[in-house]
Predict the 3D structure of the following.
Amino acid sequence: MDNNLKLLALGSLYYDDNEIKKQIDAIDEQNLDELVFGENPKYEWFDCIPEIEKQLLAINITEKQFEKITLLSGECCKTHHLIMPNWDGEGDEFAIKSFSGVEIMVNLKKLEFLDFASAKDIERLFELGIEEIDEYCGLSDDHKRVFIDMGVKVS
């Protein structure tokens, strides 16, 4: 699974799964943002903190947990802000390059605030029961047409 897709999944589960929330909160409690904000910062203002990203990506998500996901939002602020404390929603640090593995999110219904420009396999989403795509960019007219023909609300 694409690392950034997994971060979106974790961002969604942070609010819907106590075990995932506990693991993410434990990472947050390490105060690794001091690597950016501290007196002798290791990283620059808009850098990602790889130590945090590595720990987040090491969190195991079970099939049952993936089934809880109904929304993937590019505004998954908890995971993104842990990795990049000064994340402003700009840049491509969190761009999804592949939707490989998304099929395990069998109850996924809505996508929002996603940039599809870097994803090479958007067609994988056609197999899911997506009902709505809101606030997006980078979706080709052809892909948009297929989603609309499938009854997906695209706005």
User: Anything to note?
Assistant: The mean pLDDT is 94. The helical segments are 3-13, 18-28, 34-37, 50-57, 63-66, 77-83, 141-149. The CA atoms of residues 17 and 65 lie 7 Å apart.
